[in-house]
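Pasting as-is:
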Amino acid sequence: MKEKRAVMETLFLILQIGITMLVTIGLCFWIGYLLDKHLGTKLLWAFIVLGILSGYRAVYLLIRKHIRGRAYETEQPEWAKRAFRSDDPDQEGPGSGENPR
């Protein structure tokens, strides 16, 4: 079950990377096109480069967050894994049940 989850997380990361690059480059292209059309400038290429750079930065942050999340899962102490486990709905953990007052 854990392997299937890891594969799905990786597939969603790849999908998110593609969408992020497409949106950032497309949005910057659109802004550059509108500025060229209405102001008569030649800023389209500058905005395309800006879109590519911002897309790479966003992808870098996504991958860094994904890697740090996996490192956190493997570096957790055993007591933290047991305390915050949500795999088994029958197991009671902190915050479950009634108020102890």
